[in-house]
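Long-time lurker, finally posting.

We've been working with AP-3 complex subunit mu (Wickerhamiella sorbophila) and I want a structural starting point before designing mutants. I don't trust myself to interpret raw outputs, so I'm hoping someone here can both generate the structure tokens and explain anything notable. Sequence follows.
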Amino acid sequence: MESIYVFDQTGRSLLNFSSLPAPSVDEVVSLVLKKPTGSLVELTPSQLAFRHRYGTLDFVVPCSTLVQPMAVEAFVDQLIRCLEAYFDGKLTAQLIESNASTIMQLLYEMVDAGQPRITEPDILKGLVPTKSLLDSLWSSSRQTAPAWNLRWRRQGITHTKNQIFIDLVESLHVVVSSQTKNKRKQPKAMTGSAYYSTTATISSRPLVCRVRGQVKINCLLTGDPRVSLQLGRASGPNALFTSIAFHSSVDSTQWESRGNISFTPPDGPSMIAEYSLDISDPGLVNAELLRNVGADRNEFEVRVSTSMDTTVEHIQGLQVVVNFPQSTRNIKELRLTTGDLATSTPKKACWSFGAKTPVGWNATFRGQASSEDEPVQPLYATVSYRAIGRVPSKLAISGLSIQNQLFQERPYRGVRYQTLVDNFSIR
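Top reply, 14 upvotes:
Generated this for you. Predicted structure of AP-3 complex subunit mu:
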């Protein structure tokens, strides 16, 4: 979610909150408010806007086309519930306009780099005190209390054990072209040749290989520490990000001048940065789909392999799903080197390898599929898996420093790299 707008019934803007680069108010009015409520409106090929009507108010949320519309709708519903609980009543244009600064503070707590963060009304009341409580606190402490301008972090935080944990999480979107052989028959005598092989290596350069990454932290540090992260490639040149967005705590000048992510972190879990970049190699797992193979060109073959990597112990939950046309009536297994094959429906074959698959490994599935009167070939295949130990972009936390005057001992620091793949297709 890039931003949140609230308009009254005349189209006048009451609130404009942005967590990422977003369209202007004029664009939203012209493109969205003229459409029916509850609809999704395309702003750009990669950007949608969701409109939600509440009484005489319109809530408009621009977001990426990769975001599920139901997730945006659920967040807006929860936002309204939180505001109703905070202000103890129904929302009106006058209430929104007169309390815009307070609502902005609430949204800074609720949304972190475009992602929902804290959506519980009771927690929000503790983080952003109501006006009556602020008045009493101000009258009792304005003479002695110093200014505190970190809206994302409470003052006076203490922890028995000073720890910080960092997760670098990347999801991978890959599209690979399948291999289709001509249907011209080869002489059957060739199948017995010593030079004939069903496992010859075929190079399939990805048509699309895109990474979406997140830098997540869980900060359990006393006081108001200053954390500095160095994010770069473990080897080779620095990654060229196609886009990158930071939590409001990050000093963007440090990133632009030195490539450091420097910030005073929120207490507890939060997402500090979100980025995307294009790469050339999916890395840990490669897969191929071959059509029209075999002596009569009526078979198909799926190959999957894992690369050697000293930072990864195994691949978790590896699965390949082969999808067939609607007319398919039968899928026949001819050769299966390993794994479990399930064909519960005639239009899909699920090839699974259990909880752990070793690195430096490969497997092959060859089969035939047919409709009522003729052979058919797969439409496409999808691959999904998880891995801990490295990320596809080969980014790494190359440096981490913590400055804090309230504790002298070196805090415990843990870094974990995770790969999540559920959008790897061979077409």
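Before you design anything, note these points.
Helices lie at 25-31, 69-87, 93-98, 100-110, 121-127, 131-141, 252-258.
Residues 212 and 276 are 4 Å apart (CA to CA).
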